[in-house]
């Protein structure tokens, strides 16, 4: 049986006197790609931040390998939606990636080789000396992903990382992230508003509803996505099971 990496044990979160997330329990297994969807204000990002140790649950507990998550860890990387603000404009691509190595106190003599390797992994070797303003949005997001990979994380938390990108760039990065996850054995929690993106990337999809009540808690559905991998933008999205799951999720969210 695959080992669980992250456990949410009846995690509830209240902010400003309002219940953002009602008690929610879910287990994330090693190497699993779990997408979180739901309407605005349903607690998707809040749940992700609790997994990162940025937010303390009002009740319940988040654990990683059975140990309580009490704060950020180098083994957990967070990819933000706003890649422009996540990068330092006065640092080159290589030096932005170096931030993760500097925080981990990797000796300067070892940094160049590791930066070169991770930039090659995301296809940015030719852009190491450029500044963020010289890059497209998709390339800037690749830099942020490269910086996260440089810290050699076990878990990657991604908060709508492709939401601000055009459709073709978004699809390209979806495939790139899927490849990286397969190659590096990462465990991923991925927040998105896009049902098709969730089904295309996820092994499972966790659907949340806004304004939870005792009768209708935050967790609306948790469904498996048994589509074959690697997935392809056209054939996967035309697969009968993909279409069936999309209808199922739409139903859950339509009544969320």
Automatic annotation (TrEMBL):
The keyword Transport applies. This is NitT/TauT family transport system ATP-binding protein. Residues 6-235 form the ABC transporter domain. The keyword Metal-binding does not apply. Keywords: ATP-binding, Cell membrane, Membrane, Nucleotide-binding, Transport. Signal peptide: none annotated. Gene3D superfamilies: P-loop containing nucleotide triphosphate hydrolases. One of its GO terms (molecular function) is ATP binding. InterPro entries: AAA+_ATPase, ABC_transporter-like_ATP-bd, ABC_transporter-like_CS, ABC_transporter_ATP-bind, P-loop_NTPase. Belongs to the ABC transporter superfamily. SUPFAM superfamilies: P-loop containing nucleoside triphosphate hydrolases (SSF52540).
């Amino acid at each position: 049986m695959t080992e669980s990496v992250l456990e949410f044990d009846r995690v509830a979160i209240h902010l400003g006197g309002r219940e953002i997330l009602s008690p929610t329990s879910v287990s994330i297994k090693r190497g699993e790609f779990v997408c979180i969807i739901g309407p605005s204000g349903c607690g998707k990002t809040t749940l992700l931040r609790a997994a990162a140790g940025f937010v303390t649950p009002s009740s319940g507990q988040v654990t990683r390998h059975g140990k309580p998550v009490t704060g950020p860890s180098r083994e957990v990387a967070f990819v933000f939606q706003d890649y422009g603000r996540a990068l330092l404009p006065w640092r080159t691509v290589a030096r932005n990636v170096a931030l993760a190595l500097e925080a981990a106190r990797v000796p300067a003599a070892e940094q160049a080789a590791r930066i070169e390797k991770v930039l090659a992994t995301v296809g940015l070797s030719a852009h190491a000396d450029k500044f963020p303003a010289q890059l497209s949005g998709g390339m800037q997001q690749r830099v942020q992903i490269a910086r996260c990979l440089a810290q050699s994380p076990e878990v990657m938390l991604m908060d709508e990382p492709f939401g601000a990108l055009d459709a073709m760039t978004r699809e390209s990065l979806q495939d790139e992230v899927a490849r990286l996850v397969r190659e590096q054995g990462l465990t991923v929690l991925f927040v998105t508003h896009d049902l098709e993106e969730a089904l295309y990337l996820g092994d499972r999809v966790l659907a949340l509803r806004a304004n939870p009540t005792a009768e209708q808690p935050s967790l609306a559905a948790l469904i498996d996505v048994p589509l074959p991998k690697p997935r392809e933008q056209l054939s996967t999205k035309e697969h009968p099971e993909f279409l069936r799951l999309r209808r199922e999720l739409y139903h859950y969210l339509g009544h969320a």
